[in-house]
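Quick one: structure for this chain?
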Amino acid sequence: MGRIIAVANQKGGVGKTTTAINLAAALAASDLQVLLVDCDPQANSTSGLGIPRKLGRPSLYHLLVGDASVTDVLINTQFDGLSLIPSEKALVGANIELVDVDDRERQLGQRLDPLRQNFDFIILDCPPALDLLTLNALLAADTVLIPIQCEFFALEGISELIDTVARIRENYQHPLRIEGVLLTMYDDRTNLTKQIAADLREFFAADIFETVIPRNIKLAEAPSFGKPIIAYDVRSKGAECYIQLAREILTDDRPAA
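Got it. Here's what it folds into:
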């Protein structure tokens, strides 16, 4: 049975989509079958894999609120082992259109559960908000991976996300676990970055991944070419770090929080 990981942080600009794309690609490069689900109406994961944003094409929006089936929306990307359920800007309407639907917060999970037998990992790229789409993703997921930028306001809003995880466990009886906290945009040339990283490691303790994602020009360039970093420049530091993160997830024997 495949494992579903939601990549979530309501704060934007923390490397969430970069992590979703490149973790999915790195896992696929390990001879695994991986599905990336773009749950963000901005559709950056979709374009970041070289799939043009196209209104009217079956997408996650049609899967959630229309009559499209999984086979209608599933796309085989140009990268071996990596499939995609794309997004589009119309997906923002799902937050309103699902309100009156029974089990509105479990619609995504109900549609993804049958896919567990076909994929080793399903990665959910969540929008930068704690809205109904994010709630659907968290209730569909087994674990949540939280990217945090190494900056002064890194902890801003994280306590709210942690509280949401706790409420999901209690109110929905859903055993959502923390996959790990990932330090992103790390610049070891500055004392501030080092101090913030130390503070985050103390705060999150064993939940912090050993892997850190550096500030890296190649990582920033790759999406404009519609490629994950391992396809754009496999020798770059960014590629090395996401391959390391994938290995850490595959071999992790820490007790999940």
